[in-house]
Amino acid sequence: MKAFWKILKRYVAPYRGYVGGSVVLNILSAIFNVFSFSLLIPILQILFNISDTTYEFIPWHKGMPFNEIANNAYWYVSQYITEYGQSHVLLMLCLIFIAIVLVKVACYFGAAAVMVPIRTGVVKDLRMEIYRKILTLPLGFFSQERKGDIIARISGDVQEVETSITSTIEMLIKNPILIVIYLFVLCRMSWQLTLFVIVFAPVMIFIISFTGRKLKADSAEAQKYWSDTMSQVEETLGGLRIVKAFRAEKRMNGRFERVTEDMRRKNTQVAVRQASAHPVSEFLGSAMIAIVLWFGGTLILGDRAVIDAPSFMAYMAILYSIIQPIKDLSKAVYGIPKGLASMERIDVILQAENPIQEAQEPKSLDGFRESIRFEGVCFRYDDGREVLHDIDLEIPTGKTVAIVGASGAGKSTLVDLIPRFYDPASGRITLDGTDIRDVRISELRALMGNVNQDPILFNDSLFANIAFGKQDATREEVEAAARIAGAHDFILEKEDGYDTNIGDRGVKLSGGQRQRISIARAILRNPPILILDEATASLDTESERSVQEALEKLMAGRTTIAIAHRLSTIKHADEIVVLHEGRIVERGTHEQLLALGGYYRKLHDMQAL
Q1: pLDDT in tens, 563-596
Q2: Which residues lie below 8 Å from residue 85, measured CB to CB, with a gap of 6+?
Q3: How far is Cα 375 from Cα 430, in angstroms, rounded to an integer?
Q4: What are φ and ψ of residue 459, in 5° steps?
Q5: Per-residue pLDDT reduced to its tens digit, 311-366
Q6: Judging by DSSP bridges, how do beta strands 426-431 and 386-396 pair with one another?
Q7: How many helices (H) and strands (E) does the chain have?
Q8: From CA 270, how far away is CA 215, in angstroms rounded?
Q9: Model confidence over 50-70: pLDDT tens digits?
Q10: Of 2, 5, 86, 362, which is the most exposed, with the fewest CB atoms less than 10 Å away?
């Protein structure tokens, strides 16, 4: 349970005011419930005329014991019976009983109502914490985790935490209060009976805790199957065109059916164990009631009765009331392990270490004036595979440097090191002589604009996508950027113009249109450093021409690092760097490299064919 209390301290602490209100209202609810049951004793005595006890008034004192309060209450009842008769007093007691019950249920409702902001708030805070963490984690983390698995954790696992943990907070506040108050009253009524009852509590706790430990292990495995399911759904949606093209529907159905069947079997085990909570607690509670009836009967029927029949009936009513809180606690104990299993999966994200750390005393950047330099840079992934080897490279301001090479040569990795999406394993990268690890990450990335092979657009309007990098952009600025990118005309052809929603990942636009929106976004940001990652590689010839024209306008007067697959798009670059198996093997202008007759000439001749 240590992990559970850590979660409460971590997420419920900001809502301690609501917790305090719930505690007060639950105490009042329990007290009024006890009063309502206490009224049963004089009511039963009047109905059956079985009490011949004479009560004497005891003067009121501060901190008067429970027995003296009860004695004086019964004395008042006996006085009223003498003065007004049994029928009138019975009616009065019943009306008081109704009033007390009304106040009790009002407190009960209030205690439940003040818990709602805690449940909803904790879930919202947890989702926001995961989302913020996702935004801060480096790209390397997501190369090792499946997107579907991450989606499953922020959806299914958080939902399970809400169902299994936050929903039990109310039970953990209310039920101990009820149990303590009821036990106190029961002890005052008959300590012999109460001691007899307490003997059976450890048996119930042992049975519940044993099943709960097994439930946590099963729940963790069930949530893993849920992640596998979400991952397959995400893969299918992303590759639906290929699935249909290769007529692989049956194969995909088979894969999905296998994982969902595994999840069904595991969820069945979890559900059966969780469903056993109520029957087990019901049986234990009923058995306890039956045994207490037998033992209480011996106390009443014996030669030296220690409790009378009306008091015993009131005792049994209060004892029955304590059964439900115990049942609710058992449900909480069964439910908490499921939530803890989900929380462990969520913590894989929340507790993931971010190797891209801000310097303790970061230096401020005042623009970009000289050059970007790679000095002996090496990079390897976590599995030890080395991608870049001893890279030395200078990119002067205002120049265009193209990076070419075969797939897997390390081109994208090299470029990703500049905005610190990754950090080199050794060596360093400097900007105007300052190690980029010593400057503020936000200031470093503010100098850069990206246009990728696959334009990253969002399910929003054209205006919002262009203005994504400049939140205070005006309509005039957005339109000016769109004109430079060659996007203004086709935007105006849309029914809602710049307010047109482009769908998920810009699905309502053609490839060339998506790329021009991406270029307009970079133009609006007006960065001094431009990174082009095969920006025209996936376009047809006509679209490539229009996009290339837009890129040339964007590149004018900027420092540009361009990853190129089609060599024709970078032949005018100031320098072309050829990568092969993570090493720089050639560098120079287009004409120089052709004349060299090496690896670049080979790539050029292959494309010429």
Answers
A1: 887 777 788 888 999 998 889 999 999 899 888 8
A2: none
A3: 8
A4: -75, 75
A5: 677 777 777 777 777 767 766 666 677 777 778 888 888 888 888 888 888 888 87
A6: unpaired
A7: 25, 10
A8: 6
A9: 555 566 666 666 545 555 666
A10: 2
